[in-house]
Specification:
228 residues, alpha/beta, six-stranded parallel sheet, two-stranded antiparallel sheet, 9 helices, 36% helix, 21% strand, globular
Length: 228
């Protein structure tokens, strides 16, 4: 077992039954010209976590953990995008409109791709999701069950929307979840801080949070112990 210093208390897991889930590290959210910027956000905040996500991917790959990447995306005909989502807000570009990186949040368009710094490796599971949570209208739950997964390490964007939605969906399905603080971000610093507090409140009502250095260090210590 691997033990990580976390909040509100130690997080214990077995790498064989733990998956890393990286949420929506897509060009549409992270790079200029995508949906995030169209909504009026400063995307540089999200771009800044790419190195941390890359480091997290590296340590999990070395530990031979299952890795899942999600992308929020819709069919070209928008048949899986409800009107309530399509019409939300006052963006000058909406889902399905053509922007600098192709049609926004549409499968197969340039903006739909995961940024190069957090790109999936061969054999890693990549799931497209039409909603905010990674379990809604996807095969994620059945894929995790088939792999014997009981614990999830979570990263990605944005902290208070797709990441938190996924954590809550996972919690309701019985998964023990750890959110890595440096590997998630929001366009709004206060929203990230509030989400971290909500996740670990009341004895970890939704899950745990931990620093990347503590998580990576715990995996390294576990490897050294196994080798010795």
């Amino acid at each position: 077992m691997t033990v990580v210093r976390a909040q509100p208390y130690l997080y214990t897991f077995d790498t064989r039954t733990t998956a890393l889930v990286v949420i929506d590290m897509q060009r549409d959210f992270i790079e200029p010209g995508g949906f995030g910027e169209a909504l009026g956000n400063d995307v540089s905040r999200l771009e800044a976590i790419v190195p941390a996500v890359a480091e997290l991917l590296d340590v999990c790959r070395k530990a031979r953990m299952m890795i899942v990447h999600t992308r929020e995306a819709h069919r070209p005909d928008l048949s899986d995008c409800p009107p309530s989502k399509l019409g939300r807000g006052h963006a000058h570009l909406r889902i399905g409109d053509r922007g600098p990186m192709g049609r926004i949040l549409i499968k197969g368009e340039p903006g739909h791709a995961i940024v190069s710094g957090a790109a999936p490796a061969a054999g890693e599971l990549v799931l497209d999701k039409p909603g905010k949570g990674a379990f809604y209208a996807t095969s994620l739950h059945s894929d995790l069950i088939a792999a014997g997964i009981t614990h999830l390490v979570v990263a990605g964007v944005t902290t208070e929307v797709c990441v938190q939605s996924t954590l809550r969906e996972a919690n309701d399905r019985g998964y023990e979840c750890l959110l890595i603080e440096e590997a998630t971000e929001s366009y709004f610093p206060a929203f990230k801080a509030a989400t971290l507090d909500m996740v670990r409140a009341q004895g970890g009502i939704v899950g745990w949070t931990a620093h990347l250095a503590d998580f990576a260090g715990a995996l390294e210590k576990a490897r050294e112990t196994h080798v010795s």
